[in-house]
Design a protein that fits this description.
Elements: E1 2-7, H1 12-24, E2 43-45, E3 53-60, E4 63-70, E5 73-85, E6 88-94, E7 96-98, E8 103-105, E9 118-119, E10 125-132, E11 135-142, E12 162-167, E13 184-189, E14 228-231, E15 244-246, E16 253-258, E17 260-263, E18 272-273, E19 281-284, E20 293-296, E21 299-303, E22 308-311
Length: 313
């Protein structure tokens, strides 16, 4: 599912109905969005289903919990909570969620804080929400705020960063469902590249803080450890410095694209490939405008802030 949502003014109730409906798969036609949506500008594509369903409609004030099966453990689910209110949205994940008590375990709460929520202006805003059963990606665009921190999902005024829940491709033969290592990460997607992105606000639920060299036996930390996102180890922009360069076809450009890899502290790429299942990649596309479209892996991808490309399907 790919949603490019435009609004020129919204109520919390309408925005919740629209975003929750798109993510939960109950809205598949943009004409069914609320009066807060600028339908003429909005695009909703559901060639690939969102893959997520509502697990707890009363997860909290202005929040719902969604679930989707884990690709290598069909008997279990991954859980994501989506908070939408007062012009600030936050997408977080946890290991389990009890729909009766409305509580989760090993919750990744860092990007759920107001300082790192993705804000939307009540005057004008463009929201991108993309999902399949393997991932969720969310980012909001709008007028740059005057606040000095936190707005628009970024760490400084006017900066942008997405929120994501990503399944991962396991790297080691002992890293299996049976040894209870988790499916993926809850990421604050800042500027992903060869130098990585701020680790402080990306987390992985119930993952070891000690070196990953064998199946885990000790207790999981209550607070999920932070992790870092990089373009594939050793990959950077083309050596000649060109990040988006012309081809022989007039008007056509080429860019270097790399998978995103997850790291924890000094453990190296222990989290494995975060692109293989999610389909979200890093593109060295500096100089090209956001929302530029690329053909990659026989699919159309759309460029977002911070070198991220997401599938448009």
């Amino acid at each position: 599912m790919y949603l490019d949502y435009w609004t020129t003014g919204f109520t919390d109730a309408n925005l919740q109905a629209d975003l929750f409906g798109a993510l939960g798969g109950t809205i598949t036609d943009k004409n069914n969005f609320s009066a807060s949506c600028d339908i003429a500008k909005t695009t909703l594509i559901t060639t690939v289903a969102s893959g997520w369903t509502v697990h707890d409609a009363s997860a909290g004030s202005n929040k719902k919990c969604f679930k989707a099966p884990v690709s290598d453990d069909a008997d279990n689910y991954k859980y994501a909570t989506f908070y939408v209110a007062a012009g600030v949205q936050a997408l977080t994940s946890c290991a389990t969620w009890d729909a009766g008590s409305h509580t989760g375990t090993y919750q990744c709460t860092s990007i759920g804080s107001s300082a790192y929520g993705a804000a939307t202006s009540t005057e004008v805003s463009r929201i991108i929400l993309a999902a399949s059963a393997r991932f969720i990606y969310y980012i909001a665009y709008g007028y740059a705020p005057t606040s000095t921190s936190g707005q628009w999902g970024g760490k400084t005024a006017g900066s942008y960063a997405g929120h994501a829940v990503l399944e991962r491709e396991r790297l080691f033969n002992w890293d299996t469902v049976g040894t209870t290592y988790p499916y993926g990460v809850n990421a604050w997607v800042g500027n992903v590249g060869a130098s990585g992105v701020d680790a402080s606000y990306s987390q992985i639920p119930f993952f070891p803080t000690a070196a990953m060299v064998s199946p885990r036996t000790d207790a999981y930390p209550v607070t999920p450890p932070t992790c870092n996102l990089y373009a594939s180890h050793g990959i950077s922009a083309p050596a000649d410095g060109r990040q988006a360069y012309s081809t022989a076809t007039p008007g056509q450009r080429e860019v270097a694209i790399a998978p995103i890899v997850g790291y924890i502290a000094t453990q190296g790429p222990a989290l494995g490939n975060l692109s293989a299942k999610s389909g979200i990649y890093c593109a060295f596309a500096n100089g090209l405008p956001w929302f530029s479209e690329f053909t990659f892996l026989n699919k159309t991808y759309v460029l977002q802030a911070n070198n991220i490309i997401i599938p448009k399907e």
